[in-house]
């Protein structure tokens, strides 16, 4: 098969650009490791590059953190059985989750079939799903109710996805499970 001359030039320029971009990305990999940066490819938070920083206490609403989920939480057990989780260095051989802090000690969280509300401000896309996206599993959620966030815990939320595995399913997260603060460097939705 032969392509017209202008199409051949376009393909050549595209392949050259792809090769140069790949080399640049590989070269950037070293400084990214040195900067303790990582790439998020999940839809719960904006995709892109994040800088890892030490956790500051107290955490503030709206900060993005990484944490290791408890392998014994019902949704996490189900997710492991179904193969929904990426392997990683957290207990249970899982990768850390990336979520936004939505409630800190002393704040009030209400969880119900219509979603999560923090201090009477309801969050979009936060209604727990009753079935998995493939429809094959019933999803366990945290018990409906109103909770005051206890010391040394936070509630977390996947701000972009109605399917995020967040506190609507496992409730408050202990500060001991939190790993790092994640600061967006170059992200997109």
How many distinct helices? 3
**H/E topology pattern:** HEEEHEEEEEEHEE
Number of domain modules: 2
The CATH superfamily of the largest domain bears the name Umud Fragment, subunit A
- Mean pLDDT score, rounded? 85
The coarse silhouette is globular
**Helix content range of the residues, please?**
10-25%
Report on the biggest sheet: 7 strands, antiparallel
Secondary-structure class: alpha+beta
Unreliable runs, pLDDT <50, ≥5 residues?
10-31
Overview of the structural elements:
The protein has 189 residues and is an alpha+beta fold. It folds into 2 domains: 1-34; 36-188, Umud Fragment, subunit A (Ribbon). The protein is 23% helix and 29% strand. The chain contains 3 helices and 11 strands; from the N terminus they run αβββαββββββαββ. The protein has helices at residues 5-34, 74-82, 167-170, and strands spanning 37-40, 47-53, 64-67, 97-103, 108-112, 115-118, 121-122, 145-148, 153-157, 173-174, 178-188. It is globular. Residues 10-31 have low confidence and may be disordered.
């Amino acid at each position: 098969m032969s392509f017209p001359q202008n199409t051949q030039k376009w393909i050549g320029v595209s392949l050259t650009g792809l090769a140069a971009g790949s080399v640049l990305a590989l070269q950037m990999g070293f400084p990214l490791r040195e900067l303790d940066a990582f790439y998020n490819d999940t839809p719960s938070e904006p995709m892109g590059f994040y800088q890892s920083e030490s956790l500051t206490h107290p955490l503030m609403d709206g900060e993005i953190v990484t944490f290791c989920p408890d392998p014994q939480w019902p949704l996490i057990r189900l997710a492991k059985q179904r193969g929904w989780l990426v392997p990683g260095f957290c207990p249970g051989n899982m990768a850390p989750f990336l979520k936004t802090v939505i409630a800190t000690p002393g704040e009030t969280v209400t969880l119900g079939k219509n979603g999560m509300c923090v201090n009477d401000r309801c969050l979009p896309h936060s209604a727990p799903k009753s079935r998995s996206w493939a429809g094959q599993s019933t999803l366990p959620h945290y018990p409906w109710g109103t909770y005051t966030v206890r010391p040394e815990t936070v509630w977390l939320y996947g701000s972009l996805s109605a399917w995020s595995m967040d506190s609507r399913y496992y409730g408050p997260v202990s500060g001991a499970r939190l790993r790092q603060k994640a600061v967006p460097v170059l992200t997109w939705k």
